[in-house]
Amino acid sequence: MFVVLGVVYLLYRRFQWQKLVNEMKWKLDFGDIMQERKSRSMMRFRSNGCMSVASLGTSVSNNSVREQEYITTGQYNGVIVAMKHIKHLNEIKLTRELKIELSQLHDVVHTNILRFIGACIEPGKVHIVSEYCSKGSLQDVLENENVDLDWSFRHSLINDILKGLQYLHMSKFKCHGNLKSSNCLVDNRFSVKLGDFAPVEWQRESARTGNDLLWTAPEVLRRHCQVNQQSDIYSLAIILQEIIERKGPFYMHHDVIHTANTEAGYAADEIVQKVMDSRTHPVRPTITPGECSVKLSQLVIKCWAENPEARPKLQDVLTEFSGIHGARGKLNIMDSLMQRMEQYANNLEDLVEERTGKYLEEKKRVEELLHRLLPPVIATQIQEKGQVDPETFECVTIYFSDIVGFTKLSSMSTPVQVIDFLNDLYTMFDEIISEYDVYKVETIGDAYMVVSGLPNKNGDNHAAEISKMSLKLLKSIKKFTISHCPDQLLQLRIGLHSGPCAAGVVGLTMPRYCLFGDTVNTASRMESNGEPLKIHISNSTNEILSRYGYFTTTFRGELAIKGKGQMKTYWLDSVTDASRQ
């Protein structure tokens, strides 16, 4: 009787299980998922004179940057999910075995296992839909220089991996079979979740590159056996080495393995081949002394032993790691989470402070550049209002000068020599004019233009400021030596004029504070009609200077000025009172 009841019960259980399998709760309609964005993750490799290999099919050498990987995300039932498109399959054949595997995947619930939400199997739209982990893979986190990982944080990551692996080894799956750092996903709480563990071969590309095989145990590479729990232990050891070194998977010193060819794929393939070929002296990654505790380094070495039987069982690894982890291993989940979140918050604060500092430095440089291009008061207006309205000024004094014989001098010099010469000359000019209430408008070739009385109005002082500046520039030019033509005497011709003017900012790409009006043209005419080593001034400028009583001028006479007719002009000779200079 009991035997019959037992058989009936077993048949009923089997019927219920078969019913659940046929219900296909994992099956999703593609139209129910709202694709919303692509989450981008920049993945960097830091070689530091060593060789590291990427896990996405790209071998990298020193100072390389792995290409960005984009993960398609969407919304399903109000939750953000990750969508993996199975591109090599246009449609899939639902066998009984596949239904069972997908049902088993759907039933997996564990803190450190990536949740399988379901699959879309519509022709041309075959997708695996799983939990979305915003921090990317463990590999991304380890190789991101902006993430500060102390050993408390690293121990927490290792602990998560061990717990996830322990669950799989005790489950129907028996092992992971494809364990690597790129399949260990990190959520927004920095908790590690193992993914891509099911024996669902249809979701994987048929061809696996050398980069995909860096975590694979040597006996599996040689096809002596299928993946099992001991091959998982080997893969775990490679991940632990990544966590210790933070220099990419299978990091090795050049003195251990040297690769002359750094083309994509070659370095990884070579490492995989050496792992397969080496038996007596197995090729393994490098653990730098001092990067971790001696016990942890010894544990890693035991885990990647050549003989699978010599590798510790997962339970032994957990026990040994618990001893290495110390008191931290006794923390409950909430305490561990709070410590992890505190570490994350501190790391974010450091990042914000660093980025804020860089932003302020860059802002200061931009402001300094803007103040060099424009008068400070105008630059401030642009920063505050975004624009500057043109303004008229009743009276300003404008200075023009050029170098006599500049064309001939240029023909005797190389372009670089001309640039160096003008740079030396105008650097000297810029230092001199900084002593006066003037604004340098621009330099065009050998022409030098300065104004006083705008944008800051200074009464009638504009004529005096420009005149004193001109006298000092004329005095300094007589002592100036051209570096590539030391015997050449440099002669300057200067012209000044006072009158009304309009000014405003022109342009967006390279904004310039420009002057407009007849005063600009007349000042230019004063310069072009002047003589070498003399300061030619207009009658209006002379009238303003005469009010001060300490400027000496000489009447030159009336000249026919183009566009102006006959004009009285003067030579500015000196300042009679030296204290006024």
Description:
The structure is a single chain. This protein is α+β, with helices and mostly antiparallel strands and 581 residues long. Helix content is 39%, strand content 21%. It has 16 helices and 17 strands. It has helices at 2-23, 96-107, 138-142, 151-170, 218-221, 229-245, 266-277, 294-303, 314-325, 333-373, 376-385, 406-411, 415-433, 461-477, 518-528, 539-546, and strands spanning 34-44, 52-53, 59-60, 65-76, 79-85, 116-120, 127-131, 184-186, 192-194, 391-403, 439-444, 447-452, 492-506, 512-516, 534-538, 551-561, 565-575. Strands 10, 11, 12, 13, 14, 15, 16 and 17 form an eight-stranded mixed β-sheet that branches. A five-stranded antiparallel β-sheet has the order 1-4-5-7-6. The protein has a two-stranded antiparallel sheet with strand order 2-3. Strand 8 and strand 9 (192-194) form a beta hairpin. The longest helix has 41 residues, at 333-373. It is elongated, with a radius of gyration of 39 Å. It starts with a helix and ends in a 6-residue tail after the last strand. Mean pLDDT is 79; it is low at 40-68, 255-266 and 327-333.
